[in-house]
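Inverse folding, one chain.
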């Protein structure tokens, strides 16, 4: 009985986790589409992209990178792979039991 309840609870946790991941992914897509000005012909102005402003300050101002170097970094890192990597890392952490009481195997 106890093992069955644990399995059901883990399934609920996994479903909730995937819902959160998909909502976060949807948010990133929304941010990207809100900052793509070419798609806003005749529509209201998009929200201010604070993330871009902060990144530009850090990469150009503090690190002294030129635009070409920043574009190369951006080509390597994209939202989809960051979400996939974060999901995989969280599953590995759970599988290895690195979070006390949160292992897949009890």
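Residues assigned per position:
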């Amino acid at each position: 009985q106890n093992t069955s309840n644990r399995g059901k609870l883990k399934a609920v946790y996994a479903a909730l986790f995937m819902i959160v991941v998909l909502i976060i992914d949807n948010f990133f897509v929304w941010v990207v589409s809100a900052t793509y000005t070419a798609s806003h012909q005749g529509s209201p102005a998009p929200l201010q992209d604070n993330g871009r402003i902060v990144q530009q300050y850090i990469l150009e101002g503090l690190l002294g990178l030129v635009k070409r170097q920043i574009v190369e970094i951006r080509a390597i890192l994209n939202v989809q792979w960051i979400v996939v990597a974060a999901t995989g890392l969280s599953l590995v952490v759970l599988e290895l039991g690195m979070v006390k009481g949160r292992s897949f195997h009890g």
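The CA atoms of residues 70 and 76 lie 10 Å apart. The chain has four helices and no strands.
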